[in-house]
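Risk mitigation, structural track. In case the binding assays with fructose -6-phosphate fail to produce interpretable data, a predicted complex structure has been prepared as a fallback.
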Amino acid sequence: EKSGYKHFMAKEIAEQPTVLGEAVDHYISKDGKGVSFAAEGLDFTQFDRITMVACGTAFYACLTAKYWFEQLARLPVEVDIASEFRYREPPVAPRTLAIFVSQSGETADTLAALRYMEGKAAKILSVVNVPESSIARESDVALPILAGIEVGVASTKAFTCQLNVLALLALNAAHARGEISDAALGDHLAALRNLPGLMNHALGASDTIEALSRELAKAQDILFLGRGAMYPIALEGALKLKEISYIHAEGYASGELKHGPIALIDENVPVIVMAPRDALFDKTVSNMQEVMARGGKVLLITDAEGAKQAGDDVWRSVILPEIPDLLAPILYAIPAQLLAYHTAVAKGTDVDQPRNLAKSVTVE
Ligand code: F6R
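Fallback model:
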């Protein structure tokens, strides 16, 4: 079943270009120029705002999508953790689209949050991997992420396939609301169809990441930094690392470092900087330099030109292909997963069945 891989997690990481490519083809029109959810009854001109609710990795997919919906479609988005949202009993404005993201579709807190939104939100949309799940059945619209069965407890391919569907929704919303032209939509969709090839390149960094993970495995604390839509990917990288390698890790928005966490930096704390060459690259580089000036060991994840601009003082680099800004979070999720995987293997932990964790959290 593991098809020659040592762990389900390794197999599921490697599968991503294939499953994501199939999911892209499923959702994009035959001519490759459009994306529509009209058949599912979703019309983004009917909504004034979006509330997204999920847990864990699915929550980080929602945090990423907030940047997309707000930047592309100019729709305000609120994102919350299901266990907080449900007990907070927040007021819900009319014309709110509620989006629930869940791989299993059975997470108790997410299901309870969905039930709270029934009769309050204008529409309830779920983004799930299991179409016959409770969350899918109780939604007005359920969109499958088409990742295929995910066995490893640490979510990998489900995360990138969740991001794919959320990116398509944001593009559809932006187009329907007149925020982007036909041509711009076509360009974004062409980039999305190109993404599986770039993901294959990113998987090619596995050997480099394996070698440096043997050193990361000695660390007690590791920080992940990112800005903009890379901030949720920093959070996801930290979650993935702690859940399977048991190394304490935290993700921070790069700009938040100087407000406290920089006190943690010394030569024993590796700092992993997720820095595609986007509009915020220079700002991230200057945060990185603050870390290096305090003796921090920086692992920089960027493209070839980014590595050149960052200079020679970084401890290690992982080089990814150049990527349009919109899709960087999906591509950069791969090295984050590989870092967690190889570090856990180096430590000898049970990668597919980490202690204390269950694949589907059906208790509150
Ligand atoms: C982390 C992980 C969890 C899940 C969370 C939500 O790798 O897998 O954080 O993302 O338990 O699960 P679903 O998506 O099934 O609602």
